[in-house]
Each structure stands twice: as structure tokens, then as C-alpha cells.
Records
---
Amino acid sequence: MKITAAISLLLLTVSPAMAQYYLRGEVKDEKSNTLSNAKIFLHSTRYVYYSGSSGSFGITSTHLSDSVTISLEGYQPVNTRLETAKFNTIVLKTLYSTATLQRNRLVSFTRNLHPEDRNKRTITGETYSSLVENDFISARKYPETGCAIHTDKASYSNIRRFLGMNTTVPTDAVRVEELLNYFSLDYTTPPADSTFAFKSFLSDCPWNTESRLLYVHASARKIDPEKVPPSNLVFLIDVSGSMDMPNRLPLLKSAFKLLVDNLRDKDTVSIVVYGSAVGVWLIPTSGIEKEKIRKSIEDLYPGGSTPGESGIRTAYRLAKSQFIPGGNNRVILATDGDFNVGQTSEEELEKMITQHQQSGIYLTCLGVGMGNYKDSKLEILAKKGNGNFAYLDNEKEAEKVLVKEFTQTLYTVADDAFLNVWFNPSVIKDYRLIGFDNKVNALADSLSEVEGGEVGSGHSLLAMFELTPLSQSLDWGHAEDGLAKVTLNYRTPGDSLVRQTGYVSPLAYTVFNELPNSYRFATAVTMFAGILKNSPFMRQISWNDASSIATQAHNPQDAIQAEFLTMISKAKKIYGNRRKRKAE
């Protein structure tokens, strides 16, 4: 009896200490969006847990309540006590710096011009960011405007894919500046003491006799091959079931094997895959082991869902673990963009990628495929990840992006680059920036900020403005301040100091037919884009007009320019001679 009583007493004493309880809950932000991968440090055991893809967690504990520290990059950490008797909701507040990064960003901006002053036109699109074409602005009221400089070129090859399939092109898939970026037009070597070189031309406007065109050309310095820093590259490759098509995973295999040929001994490559599972496919490997890297790429096979969010997080963790101070640290994401597991909306992906924006790791996005290709998601990831964006529609394009333009694609010479232009109101009545169109939601957001871009080695940017002069006389007079003042603001990689370089565009008029061929060819590209977009500013021109200028100005020895002529011919056949007009 005494023994039984003793055992009972022992059980009453010990059982509570050995009991297993369950701490349940979820982690959210201030807008009630769930947060996955939040780190949960359990103080009693010093074990670390993470919230799941839906922000939820479940942790066993020997206590009725337990203290935890919950943290996530970009958010203020929280120390709290969790109760087993209830479902615990933890709210993480965004750090100020991250909140600033998550605001809508503009790719072009006119100083002091308020949203209500704009002529609002909404263009809807299912997989492309809805854009609003820039309108004419009064030079007297708003003389200062600008645009982000970036090296994205995806729009051109994506348009080529549509035309190659004998189908029309979604208007929001046409981004004029990316079509112009696609061609290497009239590169100018910068002075020894500068990162950029400038030149400009003023000429006639083929689609409006009342207007003039101003071409502002900026060329970035080319990195000396002997001084190219070591690279820490993480290939993040989508191997989900949707990639099981000839123009998807097989194309990416060919593309990455081409890139491997450019690797040096001091470069490091890792491969992360996501599909039926997410994980490190190739551990960090020296560029000297090219055969090992190529075999690892060749052995990739498709299958499963598309947990893109988890893949991105894994790739960034790996890139951080191999971070090279002063080196080229970059994640190269290759996918059709069809994320269907974890965070899948553009807003959620944007929030996730901004948390890594200041880590010193760049992001290059390579899009492939058709049908479920998500241009808008990859565009957002590239811009928020301080990177660039290309679309690979064939092996030739892969070779162009990853071999011929290797340093331009993967080596940065300027961050947060933004071109600011002040127009002289004594000679200009109004002006319109061609291309660099903003998204509808960015224009509607009063907190939107200008988003600078990443500039690669040897990149050549051409910005075009349509101007209405105060006088239609070809002699615009002489103004002390010139036609326009150009300022380029940027940072060098790894440096927080904002640098500035300037240029004054002279009042020098050139007859259109006497312009250098590259600028006339660029004009034809702009006309081609305007017709595809059904631009209200180019309703008076036809495919023949664009073709005529391109034919006269193109370089027959340049295969890319020659191909453009065939694209105009295809577009003419698909759309017909009659232009489709936008609904008013």
C-alpha cells in the first residue's frame, strides 16, 4: 500500500514535468499578410524553428507557456511568450528601411507633376504589368523629368516569339526602352575620369511634322577583362513539371553550359533547383571544374510543382554563405515564372525580394517558355533584386545574353542609375518621354518613388524625347542654357555615395536623313514599338514607314539588325495594312 502511494505521488510530481504541450500560431505582418520562414527561437530548449509557407507553426514544449524570439530579415524582432491554451498570432513590424524599399517604384518621373494632372488610361493585362504611356508635359510648368537606366532586354525577344508564332503581341508586353536596349547602337568610350559618356542629337520626327526628336545617348564604361572581380554565381533553376518542354528546361541547359565556358578559376558556381523538391544540386564549385559543372547541368530533369519562393530563399542563403567582398555576387534565376507553391502573387514576391535588396547580391532573371510565361513576375523580381531581365526564346538569344554580352549581363558598373533631364522652356513648349512607361498602380500610389536601375559593363542607353518647339522655325535661336541639361545620378557597386555626372545638350539641329545610321535605325525601332502598342501618338504611320527607315539605316553586316527587318514584315502580315485603333 505504501509502495502504491509512493508511486502515485511520484507520478503526480513527475508527469507535469514530462508532459508534452503544443505551441500553435502564425506569423503575420502589419497588413495581415502571412510571413513564411520567420525564425522562431525557443528559449527553454534553445532550438530554432521556422514558420511554414502559410506563416503557421506548431512546436512541442514541456511547458504550458514558453518564451520565444521571432525574427525575419526586414522586420523588427519580437520577444514574446506563447501560450499552449490558445492560437498565438504574432505580428512583425516592417523596419523603416524595408518599408521604404517596398513602396511602388516609378521608372520615369516628372518633378512636381501630380497624379491628378495626368491623362489616365488603364490598360489591362493578365501576365504583363499594366502600363500607362507617357503623355506630353508642359516645359514651362514641369521642365524637369527623368528615367531609370537599366539593361533589361526581355521585351524584344518576347515580341519576336509572338511574331514567330504568327500571333499578335499583347500591348503591355511592348516596352520601348527594352527594344532600344536590345541593339548595340553607337557605343562611345567614356573619358578616363568618368563612368559614362554622353552625346545627343536633335532632328525631325517622322510621325509628327510639328514635333522634333531629341536623342540622349549614355554609354557606360567597359570593365577591363583583367580587372573583372571574382564571381560567386548561384544558378537557381526551375525544374518543375511546367518546364518539361523543348523550349524550357532543355533550352536552359544549353544556355547555362554556354555560360560555363566563360568561367575562370577564381569564379565559384553553385546550383539550386526547385520542383518536386528544393535543394542544392551542386555545392559551390570552382570555375576550373567545367566538366563537373556541365555534367551537373545536363543531369537536371523536370517534375513536380513550382515552389519558386522556397527556391529563391535557398539560393540567397547559399549566395550569402559564399559571399565575396568586392566580388560579383549574383543569383541567376531561370524559369517560366509560373510559381504555384508558397508566395505566388507579385506583391508577395516583391516583398520577399526587397528583403535581400541591400545584401550586395544581384539578381538576373532569365525567362523561357510560352503559354504560362509570367513576364510581370520576373520583371518585378529583377527590378527589386537590383538586377536585369532577359527572355530566351532560342539558343541564339542564350548565346547573345550569356556569351557575347557576358560582362554586360553579369557585371555591374553602376547601381541606382537615374537620368534626369531639364528642358529649356525658352525654346521648348512641351515634351514627351518615349518609353519608360510606368505601371498603373505605381502612378496611383502617392508614396511611389523613383526606381534607379543597374547598369552593366559597356551598356549603351538611348533615351528619346518627342518635343514641340515654341517656334516651328528650324532656327531655334541661341539659348545660353542649351536645349536641355542632362544629369546622371548613380552609385558604384558596394558604395553608398551617390555620384553625379552631367552633360548639356546643345541647340544643334540635324536633318533626319543626315543623322548617323544608328539613330535613324533606333527611330524605326521606336515606330515599330509604337505601332505594336497602338500608341495614340503614332496613328499616322504604317508598317511601311517603319520598314523604309529601318531598311535605309540598318547595317547589312549586323545579323540582329537584319533580323529586325524580317520582324517588321511578319508584323505587317499578322496585323494587316490597316492599323487597329485603341478604344477611346
Note: The mean pLDDT is 80.
---
Amino acid sequence: MFKKILIANRGEIACRVIKTARKMGIQTVAIYSDADKNALHVKMADEAVHIGPPPANQSYIVIDKVLDAIKQTGAEAVHPGYGFLSENAKFAEALEAAGVAFIGPPKGAIEAMGDKITSKKLAQDANVSTVPGYMGLIEDAEEAVKISNQVGYPVMIKASAGGGGKGMRIAWNDNEAREGFQSSKNEAASSFGDDRIFIEKFVTQPRHIEIQVLADSHGNAVYLHERECSIQRRNQKVIEEAPSPFLDEATRKAMGEQSVALAQAVGYTSAGTVEFIVDGDRNFYFLEMNTRLQVEHPVTELITGVDLVEQMIRVAAGEKLPFAQSDLKINGWAMESRLYAEDPYRNFLPSIGRLTRYRPPTEEATPTRAVRNDTGVFEGGEISMYYDPMIAKLCTWAPDRATAIEEMRLALDGFELEGIGHNLPFLAAVYDHPKFTSGNMTTAFIEEEYPEGFEGVTLDEDACIRIAAATSAMHRVGEIRRARISGTMGNHERHVGEDWVVSLQGASHEVKIDADRDGATVTIGGATLRVESDWTPGDPLARLTVDGAPLVLKVGKISGGFRVRYRGADIKVHVRSPRQAELAKLMPEKLPPDTSKFLLCPMPGLIVKVDVQAGDEVQEGQALCTVEAMKMENILRAERKGIVKKVNAAGGDSLAVDDVIMEFE
């Protein structure tokens, strides 16, 4: 077995590999750029080597710099994680030439299956059903338009070396094909150093289901069942689960056996994933094979009990797989939520900055439930503009799907994260959505259910009553504390009343509180609820029980009440005396400023280009400028017809959130 391995990656996956290596008694080496000098993976590793400036194409994906780090530290093997160099055949070849083990598949398998165009041709030659498309290289945007018309819209424009949603665009017409080709080409070049593009038919209403395979160098190969990855946004997975709520045993077996056969046909070893599109009749079509560890591998680990990183290391060291296909059963259900540094209220645009508060739920594992959080950040750390916006992968496990979902809801409720925009509210909303809970979703779920973007959640009446009862009891705790302040005049003791009016989501509820040492009995709307908690004023997280059921609220103090965040809703709750509530109705509402004549930068980022100038007349939907952040290009478009009055930014400018890019007459 290896004594020392180098992790050619960063962030949560580097931390994940270090945990398993530590468990196996293997020393670890981290590499880091200038932007990551204080990163968690650097702190966790036994050694760390600096490899260059923040941009990945000047540090993490420069093969010579990684090889230098290997020589400096004497590492015997390299785990590439995912992204960066994980599917780079030249990197595997360079390691082999240097006598260093690659904890991944052989160079030939990477070349055969890691390249999306080649893998499609091989699958077709092996009579595997594939999605219609054009597998040849595409020279320019006009050729992309021509091919798109031949294939038939809608089409998917994809980077050949792509992954993680980078270099992918859906085009529904010639203009989108032209724009999408160029943006995909640019993203592919900056993310992977390979700008080759191919086009395939975009299958509407599909489910994205993938099979995890594992093979050793002794001819043994198994599949570890499937993962459902249909909840996607911009072709990037958001929520994954294992197993799929859609597959039956026959389809699962057929997909698994086909995946293993495909892997063996190319001499595959290590962990890999075969991805399929599955239609409503459970017909499945090969998409691609990812010749690396997947981001969502934890859900497979949770339902099989197999540590995939450990098996990758053991296979690379020449060991045989310790189990056969018949040993791999599905145990329970697992969910994974990808927590991203992106603002759901700004159309999920990237958000960077310092994590002023980062308190994930406690990790635990029992026979009936499990909570796991794979992360690469820490409180006080910074989310950089240079890398993927993922903060953490929160996973839960339970004996069945409904319980696993409920465990995830509670875990998300208790996840404290402040300082940046993040998608926690959106994740919470998805887990409460009836289409998701029924399991009847496709890859179009987010597009169909949130066509105008995410604007928060409106809580139902039952949730509002529970929150009103909880916050009134919490408010009374604060009032009792304020009544006991020292230095008051004698015979002027303040009495804390029992009657209150709680206002939230545009409705008011009359509340009567009967408190005792263990909690409070709250009468509200004809119902009587028992509220118990050890919450004290100032705590940002309130864990309560309301009528015996858990209720976890993120709370902040506002004048006369609380800011409450719960299950995707972000609401103001005012708790007032009856007289205060009467007077509050007379107060005018403060309106936000009018910014309709400005194009504001929606995220911190770099202006790639500006498409208009002062005096130009623009039409609705016309491209105004392109902003790059976290390796993704975002085209900002005109919301309506107008005339440009002034342009304040130019290509190459670095802007902050809400900086004015241009003004309109």
C-alpha cells in the first residue's frame, strides 16, 4: 500500500480524499494556489505545496507544476479528485512516465471514454443506444448553426472535455446556437484547456440516471447501483439521490450490466460513472462515461457501505475488489444537496465573499439515520471568484425515501450560513415541492416549476400558525429578560402581558400565552399549541418543539420582532401588544428605490465584453454585455426596448454586486 499520496485538487473533494487516506494510515500532500493558501484542504493535509497564481490554468491544471510537487514530496500516487486534471490522459501518461501511480483509470480508458465524442462513437460501435447528434469536430459558429438545423432543435452544445455543467448550452434557434457555441468554446478553453465542441439532440422531459461502476486490474468489475440526478439547473446537478424512485429491478439490472460491459470493453479500472437519459417508458440511452469519481458519490456510499475513495486507492495499488456483484445490496435511501455560493433571489448568480458564519448540522450515523457534510470551507474563510461555487454537499440517509427527505429538511433548517448569497432557501423549497416528494420529476423540473426564477416560498397556514406560536413564545422570553433589568425604580415593576398580536405574511394572529417553567401553552386561531425550547435571545438558531413536532428556525432580531428563515421562506414576523398592532396599521410602507433605468452587475465578476454603446437603441432580449464569474459566462440582456444613455464599464473591468454597468434614457 502507498505511504504517501498527493491530491491534485482543492476544496471539498481534496478534504474528502484526505479523510479516507488518514483512515488508511496514508500520508497526504495538498497543492494550493495563491487564493487557497489558507484553505481547509491545506490545513488538513500532512504537507502542502504552493503551485502558482489563482487561475486554474496557471496552477491546478498545469501538469509540470503538479509533477514538481510530487518530486518535492516523494508522493507515490496521485488522486485527481474530479474536474481539473481528473480526466486528462496526458496527466495520467506523465505520471506513468514518472513512475507515480494514478488513482484512476488507465490512460487508454480515459482517452476512450473520457472524451465525449470518442465515447459516443465507441458506444455506437458496441450497439449501445445513444442520443442522436453530430460527433465530429465543429469549426465555427456558422457550422454549429448548420449542424443544429440538421439534428433538429432543441440541441445541446457540449464541450468534448466538459463536466460539471461547464461548456454546455441548450439552443432552441439559430441565434442561441451561434451564441451558445462561442460561450461553450470559451468556457471549455478556460476550464479544461480544450475547446472542442460537439452537438446532440436535446431530449425533452428526460430523467438523468447514472450507474456507478468499480473495476480492478484483475478482471473484476461491479456496479454499485444508480443515482437519480434529474434535479439540475443550467445542466449542473443540484440534488441527487440513491436509489432512483423511478427504476424497477429489471431496468436497474439492465443498466448496471450494460455499464459494466462498456467499462470492461475499454479495459477500465478504478471508479467510474456511466450516465444515461431515461425516458418515461424506462428506455435508457447512453450519454457519456465519466472516468473519475463523481461529485455525488456519497449517496452511493451511504446505500452500499462502500468507501469509493478507499477502493480507488486499493485498486491503484494492485489489490482485488473485496466483493462480488451479489454482495452489493441497496440499503435504505440517501439524499444529497449541493450547497452553492449563488444567490437564488438573483437568478442563482454567483456570490463571493467571507463566510461570517458557517455552522453545518452535526454529522452522525446511527442504524436509523445519518447526516454527512462534505465540505472544503470553514467559518471566516473566503469564497473565491476563481473556482467552482460549491460550498458543501449535505447528505442524509434513512431506511426509506420519505424519511430521508424529512431528515434533509431538518438538516437544511439547521444549517447556519451567513456572509454570502447561497441556495439553502431554494434547496429547502425543492424538498417540500409535491412533484419532488412524489418522485415524478425530470431534468426540466427547475425550469418548469421556477420559470421566473426563485422568489422565495409562501408558507401554508399550518406553518404560519406554528411559527406565530413559536415566535410569540420567543418574544415573551425576551420581554421577561428586559423586565428584569437592574437599576429600575422601586414599585415600578414591569408586567409582561399574555395577549399579543403576531403579524407575518400579510396576516395577523391574536395570541394568548400561558407560560410555565418548561415552556408555554399558546392559544392562537382557536388552536392550543404547546411550545418548548431552550432558545435564548441572541441565538441565531432556534430549535423548538411545537405540539411535539420539531421546528428549527433561523432567527434574527428586527424592530418589534424577528426575521425568520424556514423551508425556503424569508419573512418578517412582528410580535406586538394589541395597542401596538393597532397603531402599526397606520404606518406607511417604505418602498425600495427605482433602479429600472440601470443595468446593475448581478454578481461580482469580470466584464468579458460590452455589446452596445451610448446612443444605441436596444430591443427586448438583446445581449448587452457578458460577465464572467466562477468560470461561467453570463450574458446580460435587455428586459425591454430602450436607448442606452451611458456605459460605465468596459471589457476587462472587475465589478462588484450592483455596480452600474450602463444607464438607459
Note: The radius of gyration is 27 Å.
---
Amino acid sequence: MNQRSPVYSRAGYCSICEAATNFVAQYDWYRDHLNCAQCGSIPRERALALVLSRHFPNWRTLAIHESSPGPRGISPKLQRDCAGYVASQFFPDKPLGKQINGFRNENLELQTFADESFDLVVTLDVMEHVNQPADVLCEVARTLKPGGVFLFTVPTYKERVASERRALYRPDGTVDHYAEPEYHGNPISDAGSLVTFHYGYDLAELIYKWSGMDVQVVRFHDHRHGIIGDFTEVYLATKPFAHSKEETGTPIVDHTWPAELRAICEDVSRALNVPPEVHGKDDTFRFLHDHPGFPTKNEAIDYYFKDGARSAAKVRRIVDEWVPAGVPLTILEFAAGFGAVTRHAVAALVPHILHSSNVDAQANDFLSSVFGVQSVQSTHVPEELLLPTEYDVIFALSFFSHRPRSTWGRWLQRLYAGLQPGGVLLFTTHGTTSMRYFPQAMLDGTGFWFDQSSEQGDLEVAKYGQTITSKEFVDGQIAQLSGAEYLTYEPAGWWEHQDLYVVRKPSAAAHVGNQMKAAGD
């Protein structure tokens, strides 16, 4: 018998194998038949794996609950590589919370896990089979840590505006059918799983209504990663850290700050037309709040807000000077902290698109929920940073002023690699002017000094201390960036003591070869 010829075959990169592969389909229903030639995964499994790696590059260190895992695709990888992984299935006639056939027995609508147990909850095509999705979403939110994410796939019907219930399980075990019964595969039952819902484009709104979680939907048509065909959506529902303004009805600043400080923040921010919220872990705010140089708290808080506005305006001037834009640019604020600059940059950079990045997941959630920017999870290892796109502009303020020698140059290389051809990187350092604040500092023969001390108590001082670099040291690092054009150097150009550097990646048509030139030429 002749073997059927594939209807689709293409070389690509599998996000589950993390390797080059071929994607092959014998049938044109790619959703279930476009397989990776190596691991056998199908598009929705690769889609979730790709979102996982891009948004949670440190997923192997997280606490993850996956409900109803299958024997193929991302599930075996999660089980193999994540020490904090818990897999559950639902066995209705068995005690809940117990291990049954290698799985924890859990009813998603009434779980036995403790509150705030997980960083991530994962399901692949499970939500269309649950009886009461509102109960599931509430339970998932309960078991997630603040800032945790429910990461899942579910068929979303493009012709549907409103979701449709197709079946309902009654307490007596009977089923009410409202449409022709439909069954999908079940990893623990040959009888299959009844479809209870066809979801429409109101699902994100329903998730927020049921659980209070904000939702991001990622949809693919990606041949390189073998994610094409119907129903490629991946949902990320994020548990908030605190009640939002919409929930309370009143503007709030993080409640770890006394009421009188919150009132000052609201007064100052109102004049600048920016959000007043200040997170309790905002070390920039705390540093200024505690600084003896400010006679009053009003002056310290006034400086915090107005200094952020000055920085955002200066970033905009540099962008306008060095990046001609006929269309909106995509800009990344790297090491954005808790938004001292971000709250102003959102408006200052219009019509450009601003993303923010932090290693602290709480900071990322705060920036996205309060200021509406897309957040990118950073890492402690430069080479492990996964960016969702190449950026037209990346700016990193007071980031290289804290890096040890072991990662300083590697971070410069990684951020430069994250630029589009013709993109611009601007960054600041503690230069020699900053030495007046560090009387113990003494540059070594290469022009570098690092001290294991920091005002941020939640970071390891070996990874995040105090760094001073000479211009010669930084010039040497810039010289190692392939094709970099040295646009400008401004000593003490930021905050009157940090040095400013701006470099540009060559355009695609430019000759690749270092274009280093002395600042001012």
C-alpha cells in the first residue's frame, strides 16, 4: 500500500524539543495533525510551550500545577524538568487530594490545594469540558500566588461573539444537552470528554468577571514554530497583587505607605496627569522618602514624581534625535523597577509602544496592571533573557551601575542583540563623577570597581551591587558590539552624575564591522 503523501511539510524549530525539526501533516486539519517529526507534538502544545518560554523563562524553578496532562507535548517536559510540578486528574469516585495512578485526584471546581500554592496553573484544552467554568476560575485564582498566571489553551470560535453552553451535568449525574453532543479525547478514559462549552470572543471578559484576573490572549500563525491552523490561542490570566482602582472605586497608593504619604502622591501626580500608585517595594521611592537631603516628605515625593517626568522626557528627546520614525516604534524600558519613569514614559513616548522588563515578577505585574504596559520577565542570566520581539529602542537607566564584572559586558551584548537593525540602545553608568558618592571606590587597571552593597535588600549583592566604570572601560565594551555605531557620550548626563551612552545597531543594508568612533566626532 502506498504511503499517503503529506499535505504540509516544513522545516522549523520546535518549542518543546527546543531544537530544529520538521513539521509534517498528513491531513489538512492542522490542529490535530501537524506533528513535530521528533516529539510528535501538535500546534496547541507548541503554542503553550512557546508562550511559557517567552513569558516565564525561569519556569523550571516555579511551582506549577497542570490539570489533565497528556502523554505527549509539553506535559512530559514539565514533569521532567520542573521540580515544583504537580499533575492532577479527576477520578470522581476516588478521594480528592489523594494520589491515584500517579496523579493527584483534583476536581478543578473544588480543589484541595492550599491558598497561594502555585506560580502557574496550566491546562491544555480542558476548560471546554468543565461543568462550571466560573467555579474553576475562582479556584484557580485562589490557588495562585499573587501575580501568578493561569496559562491555558481552549478552542475559541471566531464566529462567536458570546460563549455557548452545550451541556450541563446535573447533581444526580444526568446531563442536559443543549446541542448535538460532542466529545474530545480523554487521557484517562476511552469514553472521551463531553464538550460543555463553545467559547466565543467574550471569554476574556468572562474570566475577569468570574475571577478578577486580567487576561492576555496570544494568537499565532507561525510556520517557523509549526503553530498554524484553527484554535491557536493561548490565554494568560494573571492574579492581581491588590485590588485595583476599578474594584475599590477610589484611587489608591500601595497600602504599605501611610495615608498621609498616599495623599501627597495623589496631589503631586494629579498635577502631572499620571497615576498616583506607588508600590511598597519601590526602592527608588523609599530611598528618596528616607533621604536626609529633603527637609519634608512633600519635597521628597515631589522630586520622585518630577524626576521621573524629566527622565521620560529626556528619553523621548533621544529617541526623536536618533531614530527617525514614520511609524510607531517598539521601545523596551529594561530594569524598569516599579515605574518611577514608566508612569511618565507611557504618555511621553506616544505614539510609540512601550514595554517594560524586570527580574522581579511583582514589579512586572504592577507595571502592567497599573500603567498598562506589556511586561517582559527578565532573568539573572543575560543569555537566558527571552524577548518577545526585536526593539527599535532599548533604554536601561541605572542598570549597568549595579552589574558585577562577570555579567556587565554580557548584559550589554544581550541588550544590543535585542535591537532591530538600525535600533538604538541608550544606557547610563556610574562614571567617575559618581565617585564623589563612593569615597571608598578605587578603579582597577581596567577602569572598573564593584562593591557588594545595595540599597535593594531583596537582591543578592554579589549580583546587584554598586559599580563604577571609566569611559575607557565602557568604550572597550562597546567596541565588542558587532557593527555598533557610537552615537553619543554625555558625562554626568543623567541625574548630574551618571554617564549617558547611546549606540546604534547597523541597519540591514549597512556594512557589518565595528563603526566605533570617538564621542563628539
Note: The longest helix spans residues 297-322.
